[in-house]
Write a structure and sequence with these properties.
about 900 residues, alpha+beta, 29 strands, about 45% helix, disordered N terminus, disordered C terminus
């Protein structure tokens, strides 16, 4: 407006000037006035624009200062250990409850105070409403009484409507006070909520946290230094700055300082891993790099997993490293792979078809029997078909059992893959019930589905066609055997090792008048022997002996025996017999021999005829033996003359022939003499020349003779006999013959480097003389006939007369012989002789002394418990005078063992 007025005045003045001059052109004056007016307007516009720009910059500066002040105020409020609720509501909004206050303060204080709210109460996005609802009905305690104190809700309403400030505290249900201060700030209302416990904790926690963190850091460093895992720290230049004790021990350094000063690396391969970790940290911020390094630690190859991790993300960060020994893990993995290969090789050798499917139902493994069973091509299995695809393939080939609903059957076959097993671990590795598949080609399979630990399923196909056929044949055979037993006139009963009846026939029921009910529940022998004793006459002792043979496990009782005749009250006579069975049971038979007694006279006549025939045979053998001995003596004499070159010199081959003739003739003469002795014993014409025999001298003489004959075999001969054992009344010549036979027998069956022991002990009124060897032993089958004549077994066995003669000579002296042997552990043959001669030894087979080598627990020839055998290592070397080891050689022709 000022500019326009100036322009008008100037125009008016110009017009007046024109009029005053009277001679100037009016148009020129008007033009000049317009120019002056434009210049004035331009100047005015410039001034107005400059004033507006100055005002804008001023207000921008003021706004920035206000925003900075606001941010500073909010930061100050955020540091407050409580919350500030601010209302700037209008009067119309005071009726809407708590309204929508703004929340100022730190997030820690907000989180602490929100713990008093009901989290299940949903009140929108503003947490102030929930907090005020939780605290609003609590009385605000101040100077007044608690019961008369207004609630926080009332105080806030008064503050918002009338601006009346307040200060106090509300007590929560947990007993914690919350300080509340209501203030008016201009046209706004504020409520300050403070938890004193949080404030005190913050004030006291700074120093405590620093102390705890320092203690934790020191403890962690100390623990890391003592950890068995190798650890270290590198600087930004990858130089070692710290290592733990395990690192020092691995590099075999003196101490920590030596490692740091010399920068000793465990292995040069550790450095590239650290460099790679540094590159990755600078490039992409990776948190760690690792690698596997094989190192030689104290002469042992160890496999270490090396890990390098940057300590923080800044440039030039240090790196922490550790090395974990994975040698055992690697070995375990190799062992697992070897076991898997061995397992697969084992499965390939089985005749049972096996297929293993993984968790995805794909075929993982199948053995050769699986291919043979189903006739599949290897190329099909290499594609790893699924379990379901394999079933479809076999069905189309017509090899599976016919099913009405194949899909349902197939789903049932695959149920183990998806079936939820339950909480029991064994159920997770469970198995489906076995199935029986009848194939179209006539085979019968037992199929077992088993879930394995990797989530898959193992399927085993067992061909039981032959098994079913054998079971059918077995059942048929059992039926035939039962029918056969029932047709026998002999009473047959089988008792198990527990003494209970396991099997019987009808004749057993009939002979003893048992009912079917008495025998159905497998009764014990004791319950059967009572009614059997009632039906007999004085049969108690005979039944007691039968019981001993049924329940006894002793070797001498586990032989076939015929028992005593049992006479029943009705006049019948039963002959029992027992036979041990391979499974430990005992077969008992009862034969009705009543009719046989009527033919007793005929049997006696026949028996007399047999005895006469036997005597004729004995006389024949005796006669022939005497007739053979004379020509043998002639042959031996001339052979000795030839061997001694009395008739002229012989070449080496002729000497060998002469020695062979002489050896064979002596052996044949020994056999003839043995036969003559046996014939004399049978005829009762062999007498004994009894005298007092020193047992020690007897054993030394026999050992000296045996040592000369066994020089060749590198067998150690040991005499184990006390010097004060004394004498016994016996035929010294026959006892020497007994010992020679036993020693020759021991040398024959003992390998080179073995040992033969000739020992004796006195047991009261008896002398025990034994020969123990470490040879191959006697089998249980051969032990039953070892003392029989002309019985021999095994390589190198003779005519079978040696032990028969030993047994006969010992029995002539009133003693007995026992053999204890175990295959592969040697043999002990023990002769029990009476000290005072024949007919004076009381045999107590229950106490025959211990086994010196532990071969058997009964009849042995070892020393008694009060006369233990000294250790061979304690031998004083008194050859044949004390307990000595005499190296001997195997005789060229030793007496044979039975």
């Amino acid at each position: 407006m000022g500019g326009a007025a100036s322009a008008a005045l100037m125009s008016r003045a110009a017009a007046q000037g024109v009029e005053a001059t009277g001679g100037v052109d009016a148009t020129l004056l008007v033009t000049g006035g317009a120019v002056a007016f434009g210049l004035g307007a331009t100047v005015w516009a410039i001034k107005v624009a400059m004033a507006g720009r100055t005002a804008t910059l001023d207000w921008s500066r003021r706004l920035a200062a206000m925003e900075a002040t606001l941010d500073s105020s909010e930061s100050i409020l955020a540091s407050h250990p409580g919350l500030v609720l601010v209302w700037d509501d209008t009067e119309d909004e005071l009726e809407a409850g708590w309204g929508d206050p703004r929340i100022l303060g730190g997030p820690a204080a907000l989180a602490t105070l929100l713990t008093y709210t009901d989290h299940s109460d949903e009140r929108g996005d503003n947490p102030a409403s929930g907090l005020l609802e939780a605290l609003g009905d609590l009385p605000l305690e101040g100077d007044q009484n608690r019961s008369a104190a207004p609630t926080l809700r009332e105080k806030v309403a008064t503050l918002r409507t009338h601006g009346i400030v307040f200060s106090g505290a509300v007590i929560t249900d947990e007993g914690r006070p919350i300080e509340c201060d209501g203030r008016v700030a201009g046209n706004q209302v504020t409520l300050w909520l403070t938890d004193p416990v949080v404030r005190l904790a913050e004030e006291a926690g700074v120093v405590g946290q620093a102390r705890d963190r320092a203690a934790d850091l020191h403890g962690a460093l100390n623990q890391l230094d003592r950890a068995p895992i190798v650890a270290w720290r590198r600087g930004s230049n990858l130089a070692l700055e710290w290592v733990n004790q395990a690192y020092v021990e691995m590099v075999e350094a003196i101490n920590f300082a030596e490692v740091i000063d010399n920068q000793i690396e465990i292995d040069p391969a550790f450095r590239p891993i650290a460099e790679r970790a540094k590159e990755e940290a600078e490039r992409s911020g990776r948190r760690g790099t690792d690698g596997v390094v094989a190192v030689n630690v104290k002469g042992q190859r160890r496999l270490l997993r090396v890990i390098e991790v940057p300590m923080h993300g800044s440039v030039g960060a240090s790196f922490g490293g550790m090395a974990i020994d994975i040698t055992r893990q690697e070995r375990a993995q190799l062992d697992l792979k070897r076991q898997q290969r061995a397992h697969k090789m084992t499965l390939d050798q089985l005749s049972t078809a096996v297929a293993v499917f993984d968790a995805a139902q794909s075929l993982e493994y199948s053995n050769q029997a699986f291919l043979d069973l189903w006739g599949l091509d290897v190329s099909i299995l290499r594609t790893r078909p699924s379990h379901g695809e394999l079933l479809d393939l076999l069905r189309h080939a017509g090899k599976l059992p016919a099913k009405e609903d194949f899909n349902a059957w197939k789903t049932n076959e695959l149920r183990l893959y998806t079936e939820v097993q339950g909480e029991d671990r064994s159920a997770n590795e469970g198995a489906a019930p076995d199935e029986i598949w009848d194939l179209p080609e006539g085979k019968t399979l037992r199929v077992r589905h088993q879930r394995h630990g990797l989530g898959g399923v193992s399927v085993v196909f067992e061909d039981i066609t032959e098994t079913l056929r054998l079971q059918s044949r077995f059942q048929t055979q059992i039926s035939v055997q039962r029918a056969t037993l029932n047709t026998l006139a002999q009473g047959v009963a089988v008792f198990g090792v527990d003494g209970r009846l396991a099997l019987h026939n009808r004749s057993f029921e009939t002979l003893w008048s048992f009912s079917r009910d008495q025998l159905d529940d497998r009764p014990h022998w004791d319950s059967l022997s009572e009614p059997m004793a009632e039906r007999g006459r004085d049969v108690d002792e005979g039944l007691a002996r039968l019981k001993d043979r049924i329940v006894s496990l002793a070797h001498e009782d586990r032989v076939s025996r015929v028992g005593e005749e049992l006479t029943l009250k009705d006049g019948r006579i039963l002959l029992p017999a027992t036979s041990p069975l391979p499974d430990g049971a005992t077969l008992v038979t009862f034969l009705d021999i009543t009719d046989a007694r009527e033919r007793e006279k005929d049997l006696e006549i026949r028996n007399q005829i047999l005895e006469d025939a036997d005597r004729i045979k004995t006389r024949f053998v005796d006669h022939i033996s005497y007739q053979l001995r004379n020509p043998l003596n002639t042959i031996i004499g001339f052979a000795e003359m030839m061997e001694s070159e009395m008739v002229g010199p012989l070449n080496d081959r002729q000497k060998d022939y002469a020695a062979t003739i002489l050896t064979a003739s002596n052996h044949l003469l020994d056999l003839v003499n043995d036969i003559i002795d046996l014939a004399a014993i049978d005829a009762g014409r062999l007498g004994l020349e009894l005298q007092e025999v020193d047992v020690r001298d007897l054993l030394e003489s026999a050992a000296m003779f045996a040592a000369l004959k066994a020089e060749d075999s590198e067998i150690s001969l040991k005499v184990d006999c006390p010097k004060d054992i004394g004498t016994l009344k016996a035929d010294e010549r026959r006892l020497k013959q007994v010992l020679f036979n036993l020693l020759a027998n021991g040398f024959s069956f003992t390998q080179a480097g073995g040992q033969v022991v000739l020992g004796a002990r006195r047991d009261g009124d008896a002398i025990r003389i034994w020969v123990e060897d470490t040879g191959r032993g006697v089998s249980p089958q051969d032990q039953a006939t070892v003392f029989d004549r002309f019985e021999s077994a095994g390589p190198g066995a003779g005519a079978g007369l040696g032990l028969a003669l030993v047994n006969s000579f010992v029995e002539l002296h009133g003693g007995f012989v026992r053999l204890a042997s175990q295959e592969g552990a040697g043999t002990v043959v023990t002769c029990h002789l009476p000290v005072d001669g024949p007919d004076t030894l009381v045999i107590d087979e229950a106490d025959e002394g211990p086994d010196p080598e532990g071969l058997l627990a009964d009849d042995t020839g070892g020393p008694s418990e009060d006369q233990a055998v000294p250790d061979a290592a304690a031998d004083d070397g008194d050859d044949l005078k004390g307990e000595s080891d005499v190296p001997a050689k195997r005789p060229a022709e030793a007496a044979p063992r039975a």
